[in-house]
Structure formats: structure tokens, C-alpha cells
């Protein structure tokens, strides 16, 4: 992660399910890259990301170190006390808001998954129906 560069105009969520412990500081990066221990709760993550982008409250570029420092300075607070948008955590109010977005908004979103896990595929297909989002599934099971 120290030498990794990922663009700042998108969320880069890494759900780590490995057994090897990671350094604690890896979980608190001051960027749009987040390492979350455990499996994702897709029924929360997907609507939360949509809400964050559409409402402009969770724009990934706001979470680089310089952006956080600027917000903290404007609020006269320590950088660590600036509220974070955390799309990987359940937020029912954000999920309800996404349900109220019209087709003109939801048609601009899509879900892409490359893998063969039946539970993940079922979950994504259910979310596709619930939020009227196209889902595209591919796998390397040739």
C-alpha cells in the first residue's frame, strides 16, 4: 500500500478477509482508499456510495489528506475529528434516500462483478432489482 497509487476520483474499498494481521495504521489511511476488515455488506455499501456521490457528501476526493486538513482548518478542529463519510457502514437514512431517487438518476449507475460466488451474485441481482440498477456479471470460469 505504501507504493500503491490509486486515483482520487473514486472510492477504493478493500475488504480484507485474510488471516494474517495487517498493521493497524492501514485501517486509517487519510485518503479515498479504505481497508475494511471483513466481508462487505453489499446491501449497505452500494446504496451508500450512490448516496455519497449523488448528494456530494461522500465525494472521494474530499478524503485526501489535503482536503481533510482544509476542512479541519475551516472548522477549527483537529484533522482526526473531521466527520467521515463511511460507505461501508450501514446507514438506513442514506438507503431510504437512494430509494427515492428517480430512474433518471438510477439509470446512470451500474454494478459490475467479476467472480463466481453464488451468494455474491444473488445479492447483487437482488440489489439490481431493488434499486433499478443494471448489473453485469462476468467470471473467469472458462
The biggest sheet, with number of strands, parallel, antiparallel or mixed sense and barrel status, is: 2 strands, parallel
Quaternary structure annotation: single chain
Write out the strand line-up for the largest beta sheet, numbering strands in chain order.
1-2
Shape, principal axes of CA atoms: globular
Give the proportion of residues in helices.
25-40%
Number of alpha- plus pi-helical segments: 5
Contiguous low-pLDDT stretches (5 residues minimum) are: none
Query: Roughly how many Å is the radius of gyration?
Result: 17 Å
Q: What is the total tally of β strands?
A: 4
Topology as a string of helices (H) and strands (E): EEHHHHEHE
**Beta fraction of the residues?**
5-15%
Can you give a write-up of this model?
- The protein has 142 residues and is an alpha/beta fold.
- The protein has 5 helices and 4 strands.
- The chain has helices at 42-55, 65-75, 92-100, 103-106, 118-131; strands at residues 12-16, 33-37, 110-114, 134-138.
- The chain has a two-stranded parallel ribbon. The protein has a two-stranded parallel ribbon with strand order 3-4.
- Helix 5 (118-131) links the parallel strand 3 (110-114) and strand 4 (134-138).
- The radius of gyration is 17 Å and the shape is globular.
